[in-house]
Amino acid sequence: MVNSKIKIQLESEIGELEGVIIHTPGNEVENMTPENAERALYSDILNLPVAQKEYAQLKGVLSKVTKTFEIKDLLKDILENHDVKNTLINRITSSCNAEEIKNLLTQQSPEKLASLLIEGVPIHINSLTDYLQKNYFKLDPLHNFFFTRDASSAVNDSVLINRMANKIRKRESVIMESIFDYHSSFITKTINPGNSRFFNDDIRMEGGDILVARKDILLIGTGVRT
Prior knowledge:
Elements: E1 6-7, E2 19-22, H1 27-30, H2 48-65, E3 67-70, H3 71-78, H4 82-95, H5 102-106, H6 110-119, E4 121-122, H7 128-131, E5 137-139, E6 152-155, E7 158-161, H8 170-182, E8 186-187, E9 189-191, E10 210-214, E11 217-220
Parallel strand pairs: 1-8, 2-3, 7-9
Antiparallel strand pairs: 4-5, 6-7, 10-11
């Protein structure tokens, strides 16, 4: 676990970086097939070794100027807390219509559970019917999680939890909200507009469209995803 704490205080897009949260692509990308690529928001499958090599270069550059935090490590840390683990499992299985795997997830170690929540939970193929299904996962892999800017946005001393345009990415926001709520490395408060009665189903936000120009100015670009 990372011992140093970071107080979230983002007042400019050009200020000095104190930390960056990243996610190195893993098996969730490897689990992509030509059949599910479009549903996963891709026009084609990714080459995992190439993606990992390029991401390692990005991480290497960032590490020279700031602290880097891997999502899977942060997630594993908070799952060490039994109450947090149960709360997160309940939220995810409920929102993803995956109640049937709740017991399976509960039995896992923090490290294994962190992997399953990101890489997905495959079905057991015991018959031809299972094999012919269009989806081989009870909990879908998070193919897009290495785009870490989208699920949450730091704004001043708070973290905005974004409801992204495609429901397949909802779990990313749930995980990021839990990390900022429970991980000891971050001092902040989360704001989830989805909990407001004024926030209807037509409202969507993604971090790539949100920019903190200065402490008192927030720019939000509206388009296909926001």
